[in-house]
TrEMBL record:
Alphabetic keyword roster: GTPase activation, Leucine-rich repeat, Repeat
UniProt-recorded name of the protein: Oxalate/formate antiporter protein
InterPro entries xrefs: Leu-rich_rpt (IPR001611), LRR_dom_sf (IPR032675), RanGap (IPR027038)
The species this protein was found in: Tetrahymena thermophila (strain SB210)
Any one GO CC term of the record: perinuclear region of cytoplasm
Annotated GO biological process: nucleocytoplasmic transport
């Protein structure tokens, strides 16, 4: 029997749950220091979420690096019905390679139309900002995007690439950039 919303505050509880029974999952693991190993476990659990429509993942301040975010993102492609993704990854150790991996996966997630991506205070350079643009440009069904990439290393080149790319996103009806939420 499919159930609607469920919330988790502990990784162990997520791993023990039957996530495939839910259409909306909220996982709050901020400040838990799960690292790349924890994101790998989380990814393995999320792969089975075939009915999932809305996912909120709060993984702020968890020592997640490029490999961890890439592994986590690999689960999203298996969630064929996922239309809303709220991903809070601020204050981790994610660089441009991690963002590139995340963006490559998001580009393949055809059903996502609502995306909130908080990458505040990571190690993202200009290439990472360019990757974000390419995903948004290729997502023809993306309607709402909320993006936070403050306090990274994108510099003027990355900011310019991001702005140029966003200007070409004609399908977007709502775009916001945010300050960090703690």
């Amino acid at each position: 029997m499919i159930q609607e919303k469920i919330q988790f505050n502990k990784l162990q509880d997520v791993l023990k749950s039957f996530l495939s029974l839910h259409t909306e999952i909220e996982i709050n693991l901020k400040f838990k220091e799960i690292g790349d190993l924890g994101t790998q476990s989380l990814s393995s659990a999320l792969i089975n979420c075939t009915n999932l429509q809305k996912l909120t993942l709060d993984l702020r301040v968890n020592k997640i690096k490029d490999a961890g975010v890439q592994k986590l993102a690999s689960a999203f492609i298996q969630c064929a019905n996922l239309s809303s993704l709220f991903l809070y990854l601020s204050s981790n150790q994610i660089g441009s390679n991690g963002v590139l991996g995340l963006c490559s996966v998001l580009a393949g997630c055809k059903s996502i139309s609502n995306l909130e991506l908080d990458l505040y205070s990571n190690q993202i350079c200009a290439n990472g900002a360019t990757s974000l643009c390419s995903v948004l440009l290729n997502k023809t069904n993306m309607i709402n995007v909320i993006l936070n990439i403050n306090s990274n290393k994108i510099q003027s080149k990355g900011a310019s690439n991001l702005c140029s790319g966003l200007a070409e996103c004609t399908k977007l009806s709502n775009l916001k950039t945010l300050k960090p939420i703690f």
